[in-house]
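New to this. Explain the following:
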Amino acid sequence: MNKYLMLLMLTVLSFKLDAQQQLKTKFISFSVMNTHTALPFGKFTGIFYKAFHPGIEISYGKNFAVKNKHDWYYDFRLACFYHRFVQYGIPVYSNLGYRYKFNQHWSAFTEAGAGYLHSIPATAKLRLNEAGDYENNKGPGRMQANACFALGAGYQLQGASANSLNLFISYQQRLQFPFVKSYVPLLPYNSFLLGLSRPLTRKNK
């Protein structure tokens, strides 16, 4: 009888520890980025000295498989970037990612995702009306799709602490489509992101 009671207690304890761990797997992040048009992995250094097309991105995610050296996670992201003379892009998408932890501080990750992108023209868009005058035809923007792939690295500032902030950099490839079906159906973007993420924890009642 004592043997079964001990087994039951260990099972309950393991579920409790697992639940406590799951409370610490959700995270949020914020990053700033610069973006330019180029083929995937093309002209990497141009992100740092060519035209400045700024943007920001926020995300909410969860590590759904956590091991000593490996994490699998997913997230949901909202971003906004400005491509001078072309558009304001507002991507809303989801990522699936894999993280390898070298030690308590350093990690590397790769992720891929897809979703919606709303495109708003960055310049005036006019049309000729029946009276022969030009009028604004900018409208609310266009519905687009986007697909992303990224490589990055992270540094956990407080090491093994469960509440540590994580500083990360990411080199992201984005495809926007269909941009202009007649001559640019796929618009490729390269982006460099610098950001912070932090775990979301809560106290057990």
In short: The CA atoms of residues 16 and 137 lie 59 Å apart.
